[in-house]
Amino acid sequence: MRGYSVRAGNPFPLFFLRCEHLRDVECNSTQTSVIHFLTLIYQIHSCGRVRLVMESALTARDRVGVQDFVLLENYNSEAAFIENLRRRFRENLVYTYIGSVLVSVNPYKELEIYSKQQMERYRGVSFYEISPHIYALSDNTYRAMRTERKDQCILISGESGAGKTEASKKILLYYAVTCPANDHMAALGDRLLQSNPVLEAFGNAKTLRNDNSSRFGKYMDVQFDFRGAPVGGHILNYLLEKSRVVHQNHGERNFHIFYQLLEGGDDDLLHRLDLDRNPQNYKYLVKGNCPRVSSISDKNNWKTVMKALSVIGFSDEEVQKLLNIIASVLHLGNTHFGEGEEGETHITTETQIRNLEKLLGVDGSALREALTHKKLTAKGEEMISPLNFEQAMSARDALAKAMYGRTFTWLVEKINQSLALKDELYHSSKGSSVIGLLDIYGFEVLQHNSFEQFCINYCNEKLQQLFIELTLRSEQEEYETEGIAWETVKYFDNKIICDLIEEKHKGIISILDEECLRPGETCDISFLEKLEGTLGGHPHFVTHKLANGKTRRVMSREEFRLLHYAGEVNYNVNGFMDKNNDLLNRNLKEVMCQSDNQILNHCFRREEVIDQKRPEMAATQFKNSLMKLMEILMSKEPSYVRCIKPNDAKQPGRFDEVLVRHQVKYLGLMENLRVRRAGFAYRRRFEAFLQRYKPLCPDTWPNWHGKLADGVSTLVNHLGYKAEEYKLGRSKIFIRFPKTLFTTEDALEAKKPDIALTLQTSWRGYRERSKYQRIRRAGSGAFISFNVFVLIRFIKGFIYRHEEYCPENAYFLDHVRYSFLMKLSKNLPKNVLDRNWPTPPPSLVEASEHLQRLHLQNMVMKYCRRIQPEWKKQPSEIFKDQKDSYPQGVGKREQINLKIVQTLGNDKVQYGVSVVKYDRRGFKPRPRQLLLTNTYAVLVDRTKIKQRIDYNALRGISVSSLSDGMFVLHMPNEDNKQKGDAVLHCNHVIEVVTKLAMMASKIDHVNINPGRFAVARGKEGIIDFVRGSELKVTAPRINST
Ligand SMILES: Nc1ncnc2c1ncn2[C@@H]1O[C@H](COP(=O)(O)OP(=O)(O)O)[C@@H](O)[C@H]1O
Ligand SMILES: [Mg+2]
């Protein structure tokens, strides 16, 4: 190779055209020095890639702040923190890290950083290699799930309007676009994405803070199969703000769907629903006096929602019934009452009752009665008592809220059915293949805060607690695994506030429940007094009565104040009891049960009416669902997105420092930074560190061939790092001060011109030599015409073509070599199976062989890189560190019966091995031989072929992660010729599976930790692998599918 590159006339075009292969070679550090040299030349000439390598955000820190807050020199200064955020925000750099936490500032404008190309940029790239991005976090989480085989979750927090929902949508989109698609679930990505507009239409509304504010909490699990393709999803919804259905604050709207229906629904539909296009005509839509929002197109969104409903799998009939309910809520809002002379209440709007009768399929007179009377059971006897005017109004509102709230839950269930791969698979998701996304209401402080804000802020307290525990814990764990001593950091533990709210018997929720259940005269004020009595003196609880003079002036007598970790909030107790009770009169429930609208039928169950037991109160239900959520999140590896809103006016380019400072404070970002910095500001895996800084030390440049830790040690010694500046862990270097890193980075920056100069000099030297030779050759024939000269030299060269390289044949051989290389550059094989390779001239045979080998290596490498990171290794390393039996799993050659060889005819056996096959029923072991040809595998019983498995048909290969030799060959269910999957055992399982996977080109279909296999059509078996001292096989569990 060395000789070739020096002698061949003009080899460079080839390298310039195919330089990415060479780069790959360099990355894999298998390069000869020539390849390395060429690679570097390539780097000089391909500016785009060089920029990517050189222009790290570390280098550009002065211009755009630091991309990771841990690199802030003055990490205790809030002002420095905010200044960094501001500088980056000004440059449209809305993302910044605190270690592995992503801080995101809402740009309030479309940035061109979310394209498909951007997704590709972040795919498979290490977190710190490239500027911070939501895609980097998404990709990192995905890779952690794949490589560490642990469920992950991404927790997105921030106040209303900070960009949580947008972030969650971007993450989902990233997975939908970049993950491999599953054949059977090709449409899943679509359905996952389409669930968003539907949930937003029914669960989002315009508030003062956000034109598209989520009024419910959402946790979504995305489930991936063993190849990393999304195969299922599941949504948990939390506490929808139902009160919005009947009331909106000034400047706010009801849920989007109402306006979408009126604006977007066609005339026929509105006619059928007896609706009129003007939202001002509906009492439930006028409270906020804000029918239209400039940033929202209700008409377009209506189309999107209708399309999304059909993609998700809602039938036309279901959509119709759903809209009947939405329209009914509006009719209910327009149902009015009058008071008779004796104070009895009656309905004055008969048209609305007729509409409700028609749309909900309920009995009109029963509904009329239920809206104006209450059914009571006293001492086992049923009594009907009339409602007064106010009671009738709240019964009506309670019905509207219940109908809407329950329909929303039905909607989520329906979406879940559409996203679920298989229920039992979801629930028994033992495989580490889930990424959870939490987009839940942010901390909310309004002018008037009620029960809803109380619940929302309580939820944020819980999440903060989780955040503290998990960030501290993971940091500590990292130091432990790396063997580095840990220093503790003080932080505010908000457990005291969580207890204040949720503690049994003594917490606010318990007191509220008690007051709701207590017989006798109870009201919101009696609840407040109870709170004062029980919680007076608590450092985080204040009321007007308990407050000092200054606080008293800013609190009303109906309020209590909680000193949340994020700030103080006054809650007005008015409505707390009603909202917690969330009562719907029994006779109204009865009417709904009898509805012939299937959705309502599903939402209002008979059992609920019969069951006398009181359901849990709203706050307790919420508390319990949060407890469950915490359990779910605790079982997963968390990543965090902390969203910040730069101003309250939803304007681009405006950075309101006071507002940002407040969020930085209550999101606990400074504490987060301190925790991260208490140990070491910067950490990096040995290989990444060495790769970046190796040019700074003659011993590590261009390559270090020893142990990575020794290489890093040599490098930092050469750089003069002091002992207190860094520590070497087991796989990472930890650097204590940013300054150390910056000095190193500056040294690298200073070194780059040198490196470039050396390379440029070499390149120029080469170019000049070639030029000189060309001129010399041309000059010697100046007296004859150039063409004749060339011809003569060509003929002469042809005559001497078999001789050693000499002046006579130099021109000819150069030309032939050049032509060959040019031809080759245009005809390189596109894949590993393509064995075509242009025939080289005799003088280039050796070089051609080298190139062919290199090219093949590069194709394999590129292929491996395209598939999953854990498969990047050599195929035979697939199992290293994943399968206990790896070392002994590689076997010897096998004797094949002659008869079998004859039967196989031209299909030569490439590989054979003894296996034990287990019967699908009974699970009896049968000794067999597994032989692999180029296109199929056969299972042989001495002289008979028992089963033939075509590679094309092979769906996958599964092995366990333990030291057993079991493996399963998955065959298509629909193939009648196949009896089911083959369950096999082999002492050389690593070898046999690797060979099979390679020969069948199914490397990416190898599944470690299978669980299931098909026994026969429609029957599934489950294999449980249990650690034990010996191999013992018992019959599998069989399921019908
Ligand atoms: N990354 C972003 N790029 C552009 N606009 C954004 C981005 N994040 C948020 N926004 C804008 O801010 C609004 C509020 O964001 P949203 O995610 O709904 O807030 P949250 O869910 O935190 O209440 C969005 O409707 C959008 O206009
Ligand atoms: Mg939201």
Any descriptors?
1041 residues; alpha+beta; Alpha-Beta Plaits; PH-domain like; seven-stranded mixed sheet; 47% helix; 15% strand; binds adenosine-5'-diphosphate; binds magnesium ion; Kinesin_motor_dom_sf; myosin
At CATH level 2, the architecture of one domain is Roll
Task: Give the proportion of residues in helices.
Answer: 40-55%
Quick one: CATH class of one domain? Mainly Beta
Number of helices: 40
Structural class: alpha+beta
Briefly note the CATH topology name of one domain. Answer: PH-domain like
What is the CATH superfamily classification of one domain?
A: Pleckstrin-homology domain (PH domain)/Phosphotyrosine-binding domain (PTB)
For the residues shown, what is the average pLDDT?
82
* Radius of gyration, CA atoms, in whole angstroms: 36 Å
Low-confidence stretches: 1-62, 781-785, 867-877, 885-892
Q: How many beta-strand elements?
A: 30
Largest sheet: 8 strands, mixed
* Adjacency order of strands in the biggest sheet: 23-22-21-20-26-25-24-27
Q: What fraction of the residues are assigned to beta strands by DSSP?
A: 5-15%
Shape: globular
**Attached small molecules:** adenosine-5'-diphosphate, magnesium ion
Distance between the termini: 59 Å
Describe this structure in words.
The chain is an alpha+beta fold and 1041 residues long. It has 40 helices and 30 strands. A hairpin with a 2-residue loop joins β10 (373-378) and β11 (381-386). The longest helix is centred in the C-terminal third of the chain and has 42 residues, at 738-779. The structure holds adenosine-5'-diphosphate and magnesium ion. Residues 106-108, 110-111, 158, 160-166, 210-214, 442, 643 line the site of adenosine-5'-diphosphate (ADP).
